[in-house]
Amino acid sequence: MLRAFALALGQMADPRVLRIWLKSLMATLVVFVMLGAAGWWLLDRSLAWAGLNGANLAAPEGVRGLLAALGVLLGGVVLWRIVALAVLQLFADEVVAAVEAKHYPTAAATARNLGWHEELGASLRGAGRAIALNLLAAPVALLLLVTGFGAPLVFTLVNALLLGRELQDMVWLRHRPRADAPPPLAKAERFALGLMVAVLLLVPFVNFLAPFLGAAAAAHLIHRKANRP
Fold it and tell me: Which residue ranges does UniProt annotate as crossing the membrane (predicted)?
């Protein structure tokens, strides 16, 4: 696992990977800003409907705006990893292809080219699973909020499970021989991969790079395992 991440990190300065990363980062930021603006407006309107208006507050707009901004910031902590991974899946084929071209040319030559519709479908399914499981985990996280570390731990473990599967599939879909073929990584390997990326997503600035490191590391893990005697 550590070797796979070391190899992935070593390729982050590759011009081809940098171009894909910048393209993905810009798309992620645009989607995130759009969701943030929509979330702020929705929260502001909801607070006004709930009674935070000129009838009972001297400066209702300022109070609502502050509360809505805080809500968007808190939501952003959870949504960032979902949005970043969903956008990355649109460019996943390019990331994995860059890794395979450099390190696994034989596999690159036999890879199946995913169409945009298949990549978009995988991205939407992955985002749907992430939103659903994070919503299911939210009540447990709220109960553990008083511990100070329970809520972040719950979301980290849930997203480790999600990330492990999604990162594996980014590579596997290019090489899967048939629809019912078993996944290449064991459950423990997928969880370890997802956990490392989930932890990196919590680190400021590093979280911009974490999904790419995960995709590249997944490629190394799967191909090195396939080539192991």
Answer: 20-43, 63-83, 135-162, 191-222
